[in-house]
Amino acid sequence: MTSATAKNKKTDKSAAQAPVKVLVNDVDSMSYSLGLSVGTDFAKNIKAIPGGKSNVDLLIKGFTAAMKGDSTLIKHEAATEYFKNYIAKAQIKDAEVKKADGAKFLAANKTQEGVQTTASGLQYKVLTLKEGPKPHATDTVKVHYQGFLIDGTKFDSSIDRGEAISFPLNQVIPGWTEGVQLMSVGSKYKFFVPYTLGYGEKGAGNGVIPGFATLIFEVELLDIKPFKEAPKVEAKATEQPKAVKGAKGAKSAKSSKK
Predict the structure, then answer these.
(1) Residue 48 lies in a domain
(2) Catalytic residue chosen out of the listed positions 199, 212, 216, 224
(3) Fewest CB atoms less than 10 Å from the CB: which of 1, 52, 62, 225?
(4) Per-residue pLDDT tens over the stretch 181-199
(5) What would the pLDDT profile of 207-236 be if each residue is shown by its tens digit?
(6) Catalytic-labelled residue, pool 94, 139, 156, 192
(7) Closest CA to 163 of 145, 183, 149, 137
(8) Model-level pTM?
(9) Is 42 part of the annotated catalytic residue set?
């Protein structure tokens, strides 16, 4: 092989590997960036669809047809009605599954060593016990916590954020209001919260916590700030203005006599 031939082959290889330039102007770059942003958010949101299933290829096909004004497999009005009915049925089925899963989990969990159940149905396990005053519902508490779904998915953690959180105890979910009142500063508890004491039928966090979800929290109580009522300020009685005495008043009186 001659050096010229080798050089030509090297050039051909470089040309084949050269990236194709598709973003030729600012509008192209903006358009691609918008598509990437919308697609990323949409990919997260479709996971919250009841049942958790979707055909991504057909989803993109429908999206593209609508964007370009092309012919569609289903008329727009029919598609809207079908989607609405599908979601309604899927939500009912999804709710039944989640309620059944939660009830099954709690029934098995209450038999575990160390787990106690309150009259409301809240379950808890003491991980670290400390003695001392316990908060009232009106107090503000400072805690570190982690939250999990019953499948082990972690949905929140003050520990991961590296910052404890403070809040009035009567302004959170009922399971927390009840459970944290059992704790003293330095204690660490694990709570198993039925959906009726959690985020109820609607859930929270745009699907991060689904409706009807039984939740697990590990909570460490760091501080208690007792509630203090603001001092009442008594309003003073307004004094009636006194009659003005003086030359002007006397002059007015004289004038009236004339």
Answers:
(1) no
(2) 199
(3) 1
(4) 999 999 999 999 999 999 9
(5) 789 889 999 999 999 999 999 876 776 666
(6) 156
(7) 145
(8) 0.67
(9) no
